[in-house]
Amino acid sequence: MFEALSSKLNGVFDRLRRRGALSDADVAEALREVRVALLEADVALPVVRDLVNKVREGAVGQEVIRSVSPAQQVIKIVNDALVEALGGGEGDDGKRGIDLNAPSPVPILMVGLQGSGKTTTSGKIALRLRTRDKKKVLLASLDVHRPAAQLQLATLAQQAEVTSLPIIAGQTPMQIAMRAMDVGRRELYDVVILDTAGRLAIDEALMEEVAQVKLATNPHETLLVVDAMTGQDAVNTAKAFQDKVGVTGIVMTRIDGDARGGAALSMRAVTGAPIKLLGAGEKLDALEDFHPDRIASRILG
Ligand code: GDP
């Protein structure tokens, strides 16, 4: 992810470095190039405007131009603006990672479109909670629409060495959710992960089903899984889920691919929800924490 954006921004900064002293015109030209690079990376327009304005405010003027290494100053300003767009601004602390600060069993609801990587991510989170946080985790698939979905989650649970809720044919998603919470309470689980059904596109029935389950289980975290490769569509999907269901965080998958990265940079501003985790591969241990500062360094690196 971010390869093209990264190489374009680095091109801009290399040119600035070669100039040494910078005029207002040099900075303005660099800003134009930064703008184009962000747009080409599929960053949402309002986010591009905001980013460029912040850099302009910080960069244009005597201080930067007279500083010892003006290009370095501009890079720092761009870095800070990227960190902020990624959700690393003040007041965002503590919203990263999964919040388990609630009475056990803590319900976590996984939502998203089919193929986004939702079921795989449920398995990844289960593995992490078991191994890193020493939690007793129950996985339950509420996907009664896709016949193989419940079996797929059971297989992932086995790989992650956590329990999956026994499958009872004919139960509705709501019945499965209630049964999962009941087993979670009786058998003293720390966390119950509820993997809901996805659809190929947003539709009313999907939203209604997810909203009902959310109401009934009162999840402490509602994590939306989106595929970074789908770019602007991922942002639109997130906006729809945020408006209709309400999510507490976003997991962006397939960052191991060649996604342009605009979705990651737009998500916070468009949805208000923080990206909490990144999926970086098909294997169950390919789950990363989301650190805005590290992502910004990756882009500018
Ligand atoms: P769901 O329909 O949303 O539950 O999606 P799945 O979890 O079944 O994932 C669909 C496909 O994407 C599977 O082949 C996964 O192995 C793959 N996948 C999931 N997450 C990632 C990721 O972060 N990177 C890559 N490269 N593939 C992933």
Radius of gyration, Cα only, in angstroms? 22 Å
**How big a fraction of the residues is strand?**
5-15%
Shape: elongated
**What distance separates the N and C termini?**
13 Å
- Summed over residues and divided by their number, the pLDDT gives a mean of 91
The largest β sheet comes out as: 8 strands, mixed
Q: If strands are numbered along the chain, what order do they take across the biggest sheet?
A: 3-2-4-1-5-6-7-8
Class computed from helices, strands and strand pairing: alpha/beta
Share of residues in helices: 40-55%
* Helix run count: 12
Low-confidence stretches: none
Which kinds of small molecule does this entry bind, naming each only once?
Answer: guanosine-5'-diphosphate
Tell me the number of strands: 8
Helix/strand order, N-terminal first:
HHHHHEHEHEHEHEHEHEEH
GO cellular component, one term: plasma membrane
Binding site for GTP: 112-119, 195-199, 253-256
Domain SRP54-type proteins GTP-binding: 274-287
Membrane topology: Peripheral membrane protein
